[in-house]
What we know:
Elements: E1 6-11, H1 18-34, E2 41-47, E3 53-54, E4 60-61, E5 65-66, E6 75-80, E7 84-86, E8 92-94, H2 98-108, E9 111-116, H3 120-126, E10 134-135, H4 142-148, E11 153-154, E12 160-163, E13 166-169, H5 174-187, H6 189-199, H7 223-234, H8 242-249, H9 253-264, H10 268-286, H11 291-297, H12 303-314, H13 318-325
Parallel strand pairs: 1-2, 1-6, 2-5, 6-9, 9-13, 10-11
Antiparallel strand pairs: 3-4, 7-8, 12-13
Helix pairs in contact: 1-5, 1-6, 5-6, 8-9, 10-12, 10-13
Amino acid sequence: MRTVRRLIVIVLFEGVDLLDVTGPPEVFSLARRETDEAAGYEVVLAAETMAPVATAAGVRILPDVTFDELSTKGIDTLVVPGAVETGSDRRVHPLTAPGVVSRVRQLAARTRRVTSVCVGAHILAAAGLLDGKRATTHWSTAQQLAADHPAVEVDADPIFIRDGDVWTGAGISSCLDLSLALIADDLGEAIALRVARQLVMYLKRPSGQSQFSVPLEQVSTTRRIEELRHYIMRNIGEPLTVADLAGCAHVSDRQLTRIFKAELGVTPHAYIESVRVETARNQLESTDATLERIASACGFGSVDTLVRAFRRRLNTTPTEYRRRFRTIPDQGPVHVERS
């Protein structure tokens, strides 16, 4: 295999998420090993100065080069990690320092392809690199990305998206999936498979696959909704109709629906289903219960209903989910699903 030199630049700045920075180099280093250096990947960490950079985890990282030193070099892949701060409302807010945004814009002009990890997509958007493109980011900040940048088509569901020469990844750990996808694009699926085996991870989750964890962290501002949420969790195995919840809250069915949409952004039915899926997901990971038992315990009523909910919300089936994320020894097949 002929060696093609590929310079990969990872952007460093104060408060950056550590795994966003360290994950991709591990993947690319394995590609070099698996191809006897033919991959040609050279990964460098770039910052404004050569001073140590403090990450969000408190670990300090030494840059390899400064941004100015890259001014005359052709860059193959620019990797833009993310950083967040937590507000008084306990929600995370992406950081997009103007100086970092400006540097990313300059570097992108000399780069074959640009990628972001997790909330790094907010930096790409602020630099104008996502205008007119489809992109993803961590589900917790996707609404903000869409609101702040109307020219970007935000899709919070996939773990990564490629739109031309711009790639965006979702959650922090999806930097591994994204890096594998980049390797597959450069060197083919066979090499990516060998790297995935070394990482002891699924070859690469399809880019269209859901981020899996159902977002239940919507913050409500009224005690009534909080009490209803706790009621739903305590009675998740029951039918839980809108009429039942409305009676519990002493409001009409229509008023309950309006309250849920205003506070949580979803209907009562959609919220209940999300809680059922999350509860089932946890049981699939940590128990050997049959799908029939899980469906009953989570209030789905039947395995068919459980399967449809998983396909709709996670783009997978309960059996496939258990196969990938099970945390106890496999006891063999528990159910054959009907498509």
